[in-house]
Request: fold
Amino acid sequence: MEERYSSQPVGYLFGRFGLLLVLAGLLLAAWYGQLLIVIVLGLVLSAAGISRFWSRYSLVGVSCERWLSERRVFPGEYIELRLRLANRKLLPLPWIQLDDEIPVNFTPEVSLAPGSKPGFGFLSKTAALLWYTRVSWKQRLYGSRRGYYALGPIVLTSGDIFGFYPRSVIQPLVDHVIVYPRIFPIAQLGIPPLYPIGEATAELRIFEDPIRVIGVRDYSPHDSLRRIHWKASARHQSLQVKVFEPTTLLNVAIFLVIDSFKVGSGEEDFEIGISTAASVANHLIEQRSSVGLFANSRLADSGQPVEILPGNSTGQLVGMLESLAKVTHEANVPFEKFWQAEQSRLPWGTTLVFILSTPLPSLTDLLVSLKESRHRLMVLQVGDRAKRGTEPAIAWYNIRAPGDFVKAGGETG
Amino acid sequence: MNQVWRRGILYVAATGIEGCWLYALMALLNKQVADEQISISGILLLYPVSFGLNKMLQKLRWPGFCLRIISWLLWVAGVLLIVKIQLFGGLAWADTTWLLAIPRAIAGVIYTFKPALLILLSAAVIWWLGRRLAYLRVSFATLVGEFQFGLFILVIILFIAAQLKVDLAHSVYLIAAFFLFSLLGISIAHALEGTSWLSGLYRGHWSGLLLLSIGLVLILGFLISLVVTPDLLHLLLAGLKWIWGLIVKAIAFLISLFPAPKSELAELPPPIPVPEIGPSQEFKLWTMPEVLRNGLRLGWTVLMASLLVFAMWRISSQIFKWLRRKLASPAGAEYEPLPGAFRADFLGLLKYLFFKMLGLRRLFQPKARAGPLLPEIVSVRQIYRQLLRWASAAGIARHVSQTPREYLYELAGKMPEAEGDLDLITQQYVRTRYGAWLPTEEDLHRLRQSWHHVKQCTLGDRRKV
Reply:
C-alpha cells in the first residue's frame, strides 16, 4: 500500500480553471493599461501562488507513527495508544489533522467520525506544528469485544495558513490488535468421558511415557521438541514425533462447528460458543493435556480454517486463543467436508469435543456414527435448549450463558 | 484571546470585505450621478448601525415579521436623517422640503437621477447587508464566498470606472484593505473550525506568521502589477515575433537545401522581401524598462526589510521561549522539538551541495542516500548488527536471502522464551531501516533491555538439544 496524496482547492476561484481566467484577465488588463484591475488580479494570483506552494510542501518531511502498549489483550483490558506527528522541515504547519481509523467499540467515551468501514470510526487529532517540532497524543483504547482488529490507515490533512488548498495523504500505517475471547472457569465442569476409561483421575494421570510408544506421525509446530523421533525423522527425511499409547496421554480435539451458528441473529450464542472453546482449551492445558482446535471458519486475517493439531507446548494455548480471536461467523467449508479432511490427521484415541449451536440432521448422523465407531466424544451445545440433540448415548451438555458453564457438570445428556 | 473576540474579528472581516466594494461602488455612482455631493463614509456608517440594531432586535425573540417591520422602519428613519444632513444641512428641521426630497426624486427619475435617490438605494442595500450579517453565522465558507463575490464586484466596478474614465480616489488602498480583510478573516475562520494555531501553543508566532504571509501576498501582488505592464507585454510579443522570424528563417534555409523541382513551365517566384531589423530595434530587446527596474529595486528593498523584520522576530521569540514552555498543552497534546534534526538536515544539504559542485557525488556515493543518519537510528541498527553477530557466533547466521522477519521466525523457533524481545528488536530495526520512524529515548531504553534479555538466553545450549 503506497501513500496517496489528494488536494482539493476551496472555492471556484482557486481551482485551475478559475486561476487561468484570472491570468487571462490580468494579461488583458495589463495590455490595455488597466492598472487597478492588474493589481486586483495580481493579488489573487499572489495569494493563490503562496497558498499553493505552502500546501504543496506542507506534508513533505511529515512523519507519523502509532505506538500501542499491547497488541494482545483480554476483554476488559486497556491499551494505551500513542500517536506522534513530526514536522521535519522549516516550513511550519498552521494546521494538521490526523485521522486514525479505529474500531468504534475501542473508545466508548469518545465519539468518532464515521469511518470508511462499518464498525470503524476516525479518531481525529489536530495541531499546529512549527519547524522541527513534533507533537504526541495519548488515548486509552478499551478491548471490549473479542476480535482481530486493524488500526489504520492514518489520513493526514494539512495545507496553507489561509486554508485555500487542503492536502491529504493516506499513510499505510496499519497495526493489528487481538482481543482474546473471554475465558470462564470450568474447574467444576468435570467432563467424565474425557478421561481414559478405567484410568486414574486427571490429577494422577501420567502424561508422558516414552517407553509406551505406539507409532509416529508428522511433526506439527505445536509439538514439543522432546517428542521428536530422530531416527524415524531421518528415515522419512521429515520430522516425526512419537505417538504414545492412548491410555497414557489425553489428546483432545475441540471442534467448533461454525455453520451450526445462525448468522446475524445468534451473535451472542456465537461468542459464547467461542468462549466455551477457549475455556475448555484453557482448562485442559492447565491439566497438561494435549489439546487441538479445529474450526471450519474463515479466519479474519488469512481466510483459512483453524487447524491446530493437539499439543501441549507453551505456545499451544496462545495459538488457540489467537485463532479463536480471529474466528469469524463465515464458514469456510461445510462441517462434514471439513471433518472428512481433518479426521485422518488426528492421533488415534483422540477425544472429540464438539461445540455447536443448532445441530443439523447431517451433523447428528455424523455424531451418531462416531459414537458407534467407539470414538470418545462430547457435545457442548450453545443456545436454545429446545433445539437440543436427542441422542442419549452421546454426552451432551447445554451451555446457555457463561454463568451456566460452571454448573454444566450436573447436567448430562 | 477568547471565543467572543475571535468571532468579533470574523464579523469585522466580513464588514470590511463588503465595505470595500460598497465604497468603490458608491464612489463611482457618487461621481457619475450625484456630482460628489454625498459623503460616502456617512452612508457607509449605516452598515454597522444596521448590524448592531438588528443584532439587538434579534435578542428580543419577537416574531420575525415584527422584527422585520421595525428594522425597515429604522431604515426609513436613517435614510431621512442622511438626506437631511447631507443634502439639506442648511435647512431648518421644521421646513418639510427635505422630507419631500425622496418622493420628488422618485417622481422625476425619468428625467434626472437625483442624489436623494442614490441615498435611498444605497442605504437600502447597505441596511439589507447589515441585517443579513446580523443573522449570519460567519464561517470559513461564508468568508470565502464573500471574498469571491466581492472580488467579482470590485473588478466590474474598476472596469466600468476605467471605461467611464472616472478616477476613483484611494483605489489602491481600497484594494489592499479588501485583501487584508479577506485573508485575515478567512485564515482566522479556518483556524476556528478546528484545533489549530489559534487555539494551540505559540499563538504569538502564528499571528506573526499570518501577518507575514498576508504581507508577502500584498508585496508579491503589487510586484506582479509593477512587472506586468503593457511595455513588458509588448516586449514579450516582440520577442516572440523575433523567435518566430528565426524559426521561419530556419525552415526557409532547410527548404533551400533541397534541390528545386525542375520545371520548365513554372517560373521561379520572386524572392520574399525580408524586413531589415535596425540596430536600434535589436538593442531594445535587451533594454530593461525603467518600470521594471523600479519594481525590482522596490522588491529588493522590501525583501531586505522583510529579512530584517524576520531576524528581529526570531530574536524576540527566543527571549520569550521560557514563557511558552510554561503554557499547558491543549487537548492532551505534548509538543517537543526535534533535537539535532535541523543540524543533520543542514549538514546533509551542505554535503550534497559540496559534492554536487565538485561533481564528486557519483564518485563517492554510488547509491543514492537519504542523508546522514540520526543517532537514534544508528543505535537501533547497531543493536541489530550485534544481534546478528551474536546469533551467527551461536551458529544461526542470517542468510543473505532471508528478510529480517524470516530470520526472526527462525530465531524465535530456537528461543521461544525470547520471542517478544526478538520481535521488538526486529520491528524497531525494520521500522527505522525501511520507514520514516524515529525512536524515542523510551523506545531505545526498551530496545536495550530487550537486547540484554536476549543475550542472557542460552542459544548455543538449545541448539545442542
